[in-house]
Amino acid sequence: MSASAADHAAMDKALQGRRVEAVVIGGSAGGVDALIQLLPALPEGYDLPVFCILHLPPDRDSRLAELFNERLPVPVREAADKEAIAAGTVYFAGAGYHLSVEQDFTFSLSCEPQVHYARPAIDLLMESSAEAYGAGLVGILLTGANHDGADGMASIRARGGFTVVQDPHDAQVGVMPLEAIRRCNPHLVLPLAGIQALLPMLENYKS
Prior knowledge:
Elements: H1 5-15, E1 22-27, H2 31-38, E2 50-54, H3 64-69, E3 76-78, E4 90-92, E5 98-101, E6 107-110, H4 122-133, E7 137-141, H5 150-158, E8 162-166, H6 175-184, E9 188-190, H7 192-202
Parallel strand pairs: 1-2, 1-7, 2-4, 3-4, 7-8, 8-9
Antiparallel strand pairs: 5-6
């Protein structure tokens, strides 16, 4: 899987003048498979924090951090309440709790009602991350079967952040990307191969 020359050119052009501080990635149906393709592109020593959130069954523990810790050359763990965010770490939202980023760059967990039938909800993590990081945030929305994430991506864009949506034709389920494209007019719409190439590039724009 490799990005086209046109995708590389579009990414370089879109990122000019950007200063990146954090990355948030959301997905639902098909999201695990998408992340299995994307996250191994992160190189050893990658210096940006990456927040990953997928819709999870509320009645059993998530094993995502364990799964990806075995596959990635960077630290991976499940986000914990009041944990300070560390550079160069991939965090996963756990099952049964909403995950948010606070203004002091710590995580918070809550049991508020479901959003788009989900807890954790992509919108809440993206919106709170946008409030904390502003223009320094990159939001990436992947495959999924409902509209969760569209409002979050719109919030990221409204606060000056950089928005990337998986090409609906490339997604396992295109509903979520299509709604995000409609709501936020993302900076880039890319296939997984393009997003895979983008992730290591973002470190070059670290603030």
